[in-house]
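Entry:
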Amino acid sequence: VQLQASGGGLVQVGGSLRLSCAASGRTFSASAMGWFRQAPGKEREFVATISRNGGITDYADSVKGRFTISRDNAKNTVYLQMNSLKPEDTAVYYCASRLVAPSARPSEYNYWGQGTQVTVSS
């Protein structure tokens, strides 16, 4: 499984970005997907996760109400819509996959994308 994240960039406070993560391979529809982020000098942290069919989602408290995770199994792609961005959202964002159930724990994910930089300027 290969994951390719894209859509990052520089945005002003209050702006929006949509990240995409395209997956190769035949297991996408059988995989829960997650988004994580890592700021300089900090540990990788959970952002959002989604179940195989998209029926279950979960978010970190810091992004609830501002970020939305979704997926299109026909396109083997998972998305992260980020609204009302804040400077503290600045980080490298990673997508990840694991078979079966969604999880907020990075250690439970088997495959990772290369990351895409999001910078929110004030």
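DSSP finds no helices and eleven strands in the chain.
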